[in-house]
Design brief:
This protein is α+β, with helices and mostly antiparallel strands. The protein is built from 16 helices and 16 strands. Strand 6 and strand 7 form a beta hairpin. Helix 3 crosses helix 10. This is Beta-lactamase class C.
């Protein structure tokens, strides 16, 4: 029943980690990379701690206030187009689009406008993997080499130890964002997977966190080997359809054939100019291949908060959201994280933060011309999803502003919306 709506020779080996780092930092438009960094103009206050007595007893007024922030963002011209939904329990408290799906034609952003999700796609991959675990087709500790015999890392020991859980929690032992730079130079995914055996290990398998897109996408190959069906078909029939995600698809062709879809935009003086979507990260469906509308993502958010136990079981959700590896860099990566996070870890396709004492399940995504964020407080079943079709950092600051307001924390203008009664810290980087 649909929930109620109120809307990478020895010399080369020694140099390779440096090449990878250069590529990860400068290649640009990498899925889930930072969208830029602006230093705060005012001091970030000491991290506060939630007082349960200050948490909003009624989330509706919080959504109403958030809507006013959207009014200000819309008039500021800082985004081409943006779609936002706020959910409490199984009810959509706010569903709104601002700006344009296409500035050239003035097509507005609507709830059924389809956006690229970038790295928000990873949670769909881990959820499907969890379903295969529930089916008994594999376990989280299943060794990848047992399913994909030709797969290899730099040494035999690493190759034999790598598990499904390791690839889905970014504990492969490779340097950060291995080969993303080559992917962006149009190197095919299968070749890059084969060349992972040339990359010196940064640490032993399972012992350190380093974000990956290519290695993560091995779950697609594992899925095909175990089920005999394409990865995206499995996601469609086991997740999209049961959850009523009617606009959700995989791939650029599907995006462009959607009845309504958001074109990516770039700044051109004081206006936004649409351009055609880049194919690059679509070549790795598990890591960054999903397209979805706001309406779809409302259902996904509700499901991740436990609203569809017949599709995503409580046991599965607990496994997906359980912290696996520490990500201390997250604690200082952006102003709002420095000001609010007490702990940061990665689970299976999700980041798990301790937000002023409250657990926050979160992920962000970034590809050329698109940004996306999703976050929710599982204990409160309160969350938000935002999709936008440009590389503005402003909307990302709205997420912590929302949680601050709901949790009764000091008000900070993390989005840099302008003069307010709130303290202002500009620069709400994407991730």
């Amino acid at each position: 029943m649909r929930p109620q709506r109120s809307m990478i020779s020895s010399t080369k080996r020694r140099l390779f980690p440096c090449v990878l780092l250069f590529g990860a930092v400068f290649a640009g438009h990498c899925a889930d990379l930072a969208a830029g960094s602006r230093r705060p103009h005012s001091r970030v206050p000491a991290r506060p701690h939630v007082d349960v007595h200050d948490i909003a007893s009624d989330a509706a007024p919080v959504a109403t206030e958030f809507n006013r922030w959207l009014d200000r963002l819309e008039t500021s011209g800082q985004v081409a187009g943006l779609a936002v939904a706020i959910v409490k329990d199984d009810q959509v408290l706010l569903e709104r689009g601002i700006g344009y799906a296409d500035w050239a034609s003035r097509e507005k952003v609507e709830p059924d406008t389809v956006f690229r999700l970038a790295s928000l796609s990873k949670a769909f991959a881990t959820t499907l993997a969890g379903m295969l675990v529930e089916d008994g087709l594999m376990q989280w500790d299943t060794h990848v080499a047992n399913v994909l015999p030709t797969f290899a890392l730099a040494d035999d020991d690493a190759s034999s130890k790598l598990t499904v859980g390791d690839i889905l929690s970014h504990r492969v032992g490779l340097p950060h964002n291995t080969y993303d730079n080559l992917l962006e130079q149009d190197e095919p995914y299968p070749l890059l997977v084969e060349r992972l055996s040339e990359v010196p290990m940064a640490c032993p398998v399972g012992e350190c966190y380093a974000y990956q897109n290519i290695a993560f996408s091995l779950i697609g190959d594992v899925t095909y080997a175990l089920t005999g069906d394409f990865f995206y078909h499995e996601v469609e029939k086991r997740i999209f359809h049961p959850l009523g995600m009617h606009d959700a698809t995989y791939g650029r062709d599907s995006l462009e054939h959607s009845p309504r879809w958001a074109r990516p935009h770039r700044r051109a003086g004081r206006v936004w100019k649409p351009f055609m979507p880049n194919e690059t990260y679509y070549r790795m469906p598990p890591a960054a291949g999903v397209n979805a509308s706001l309406r779809d993502m409302e259902q996904w958010l509700i499901a991740q908060m436990g609203g569809y136990p017949d599709v995503l079981s409580p046991k599965l959700l607990d496994e997906l959201h359980k912290p696996v590896v520490e990500t201390p860099r997250d604690l200082r990566s952006t102003p709002w994280r420095r000001g609010r996070l007490l702990d940061a870890q990665y689970a299976l396709g999700w980041r798990v933060y301790e937000y002023a004492g409250e657990t926050l399940i979160f992920h962000a995504g970034a590809v050329q011309g698109y940004r996306a964020m999703i976050g929710f407080l599982p204990k409160r079943r309160f969350g938000v999803v935002m999709l936008w079709n440009c590389e503005s950092v402003a909307p990302s600051g709205l997420l912590p502003m929302l949680f601050d307001r709901y949790l009764g924390l000091p008000s900070i203008d993390w989005a840099g919306l302008g003069p307010t009664r709130m303290s202002s810290v500009s620069g709400g980087e994407i991730d």
